[in-house]
Amino acid sequence: MRKRTKRRDAPPPEDLMAYYLRNREAWSARTDADVERSCASKDAYETEAHARAVAAMNKMGDVLYTYQCFYCHQWHLTRRPPPPGGGSQIIDE
Predict the structure, then answer these.
(1) Which helix (H) or strand (E) holds 21?
(2) CA torsion angle for 36, 42, 45, 51 (degrees, to 10)?
(3) Taking a C-beta distance cutoff of 8 angstroms, is the pair 44, 74 a contact?
């Protein structure tokens, strides 16, 4: 019978603050301003369908568009029309 070997434990997960500080070096004041404008000051939705539903429920479906955020990868609403071929307007049915 084979002798059972001890399983090596995985390294402990990195502390979230350590990860943030390690990756923070590459960010600039311009990036911080863009994050604040694009993401931090807006409501985030996990899916595009949820974002669309909120806009339609608030009777704003004819003026709002959805987009996936570059920073948080969630969905936000905007009044800015998408570039040609991207995104779609929310329409109440």
Answers:
(1) helix 16-24
(2) -140
(3) yes
Q: Does residue 42 form part of some domain?
A: yes
Residue 29: φ, ψ to 5°: -60, -35
pLDDT in tens, 34-83: 777 777 778 989 999 999 999 999 999 889 999 888 878 889 999 888 87
Structure token pair of residue 17: 């603050």
Is residue 14 a part of any domain in this protein?
no
The range of the structural domain enclosing residue 59 comes to 36-93
Number of domains in the chain: 1
For residue 32, give every residue at least 6 positions away whose Cβ sits within 8 Å of its Cβ, in sequence order, or none.
none
Q: What is the pTM of this model?
A: 0.56
Residues contacting 84, CB < 8 A, separation 6+ = none
φ, ψ (nearest 5 deg) of residue 78:
-145, 160
Rg (CA), the chain: 21
Please state, in angstroms and rounded to a whole number, the distance separating the CA atoms of residues 76 and 64.
10
